[in-house]
Amino acid sequence: MSGLLEVEGVSRRLADPQPVVLVRDVSLRVDRGEFVAIIGPSGCGKSSLLYLLGLLDRPTTGSVRIEGRATEALSETERTRLRLRHIGFVFQFHFLLPELTALANVALPMRRAGLDGREAEERARALLAKLGIEAEGGKRPDRMSGGQRQRVAIARALANDPALILGDEPTGNLDSANSARVVEEFRRLAHEERRAVVCVTHDMEVAAAADRRVHMVDGRIEGED
């Protein structure tokens, strides 16, 4: 039986101005219901690997399959459509649109996927409520705390009900209390909602909460625990 996310022999090399290998021959499988942390020193290729998993970059060699679908031959339009419907992203910097309210930020991916405006707003409100911040729906990001903004970012990541959630240092700018809330939400998304969650992190609290820890060194996976 195939995993939700399957990576086989993936490498990413840059040719100019000097040859650089970002990711070296990585193979990885993540199933539904798993919370996986990718850890390692700065510059080891963690974020580069995450961008390959999320179809934000293309591998030089190897394959990335999402829900059994090979992605290497897809056009940019097809990759964008696959990301929109199947992958949710949570970054260290929330990247909320500053001119939109929390509610509008969460509804935006649904509108882009073709959902009716009223239905998108109703679903966005329900997602904010699930994360305990429905009262912040009418606020713009600059009127919210860092923890509130990151929970809005998680709600936005869930907008189109993706099977795969990818986090890139999602607790990097949060205090310990808000970091703990984000970690608990990731665990809930994996264990209760049966999504696959993959998180790149330097935060040992995040790593300790994960079901598996994938150790990267110099662009390679050196082991798991």
Notes on the protein architecture:
This protein is 35% helix and 27% strand. With 225 residues, the protein is α/β, with parallel strands linked by helices. It has one domain: Rossmann fold, CATH 3.40.50.300. The strands form two sheets. A six-stranded mixed sheet has the order 6-7-8-3-9-10. The protein has a four-stranded antiparallel sheet with strand order 2-1-4-5, with helices on one face.
Features:
single chain; 225 residues; alpha/beta; Rossmann fold; 6-stranded mixed β-sheet; 4-stranded antiparallel β-sheet; globular
Short overview:
The protein is of the alpha/beta class and 225 residues long.
Q: What is the topology?
A:
Elements (H helix, E strand, L loop, with lengths): L4 E10 L5 E11 L4 E5 L6 H8 L7 E6 L2 E2 L5 H11 E5 L10 H11 L4 H14 L15 H12 L6 E5 L7 H16 L4 E5 L3 H6 L2 E6 L2 E5 L1
Parallel strand pairs: 3-8, 3-9, 6-7, 7-8
Antiparallel strand pairs: 1-2, 1-4, 4-5, 9-10
CATH class: Alpha Beta
What is the global morphology? globular
CATH topology: Rossmann fold
Distance between the termini: 22 Å
Mean of pLDDT: 91
Gyration radius, rounded = 17 Å
At CATH's second level, what is the architecture? 3-Layer(aba) Sandwich
Structural class: alpha/beta
Residue windows where pLDDT falls under 50 for at least 5 positions: none
Strand content: 25-35%
